[in-house]
Fold this protein.
Amino acid sequence: MNPYDFVPLDMSRPPERHKPIWHAMLTRQNGPKLYSGHITVYMQAETPLFILDTNTKQDPRALKTHMRDADGYYIIPGSSLKGLLRTVVETLCSGCVPIYRVPKEYTRDPLPHDFAACTNNARLCIACRLFGMMGRRGEGRDGIDVFLGKINIGDASAFEESPAFYGSIYTAVLDTPKPRHRAFYLDQEQRFIAGRKFYFHHNDEPLTENRLLEIRNKPGE
């Protein structure tokens, strides 16, 4: 079984694109002021988590370590959390599909036109109005439209006593997506993409090279 599945696009409910309330002014158009604030959230990793510290040596034989902030705390960077939350909003609220490239194996674009990424910062889906849009070829005077969005997410820092550590291991190479497998990546009619891709939770053991070989070599598989 594939370690992922797709949430189908709801063709009857394409993204609704509207002019956003601009990020530069916390006031509504001809209305009352908007409010700002912050929320503190506590999180727990349900399965092992590793985010490469890009400041470590790039020698492939060198030991890789988890990302830390300037104070030495292990972190999940805010950019990763923002991407996760944005994906959920796009899925639940029928947002655009902002990151998509037509696979080279396809002769036509299988992404429905209505779900194409927003390119005009005066006509944005709900996800782009919340989280922003950046660097897409659009209709602005300079040819590129951007929108800062309304939400900033900071890094998640681990408590000193909370991380659990594993010894040095070689993680399995899981390879890249293979959209040429149309039975998995396209809908039943082979016309459009199967939907938005999500991975299942795995068990609490890291997937190492040796363990991957064990799984692949199970009797009957």
Notes: The mean pLDDT is 82. The longest helix spans residues 78-92. The CA atoms of residues 112 and 136 lie 18 Å apart.
